[in-house]
Amino acid sequence: MLPDQFSTAFLHVAYRPDLGQLAGRWLRSVTEDELHIGYAALRQAALHHGCGYWLIDSRRRTNRSLNGPEWVTTYFLPQVQRELGMPLNVCFLVLPDYLGSLPPSLHAAAPGSPVQFARFLDEGAANAWLAARQGGHI
Q: Cβ-count burial of 50 within 10 angstroms (0-12 exposed, 13-18 middle, 19+ buried)?
């Protein structure tokens, strides 16, 4: 997968036209400023490609900001969804200890929301969730 023009030194961004998906893979732990820069790069790529299906691999981010997940799901993703003008579906790949540390409200979005997200430990399960959303099977 070739990097997209929106990649940074700490986030590999790639658009998969064959799948209609945007992939963002964090390459290392990041500062809070880098977190915002990385998500801004994903936003720009999504708007450029008109893509509402994302896979974000954050397994290499081992040090985490405590407000990062809440900021992403309650502020950032809804803002991008409004700008895209279409539903936004995002799956996050995370490490088991990180998933266990999150409150249940940050594991997945409420049904019926125009922003749907879910967190996964397995990339196959994440891709299956995203494909099902694209196929309208959820």
A: exposed
Residue 99 is predicted with a pLDDT of 83
Strand, helix or coil for residue 131? helix
Closest CA to 91 of 125, 65, 64, 61: 125
Name the amino acid, one letter, at 123. E
Nearest to 45 by CA among 3, 86, 75: 3
Under DSSP, is residue 15 helix (H, G, I), strand (E, B) or coil? strand
Pairing of strands 115-120, 88-93: parallel
pTM for this model (two decimals)? 0.90
Q: Which residue segments constitute the domains of the chain, with CATH numbers given?
A: 11-134 (3.30.750.24)
**Signed CA dihedral, 98, 100, 106, 108: sign only:** positive
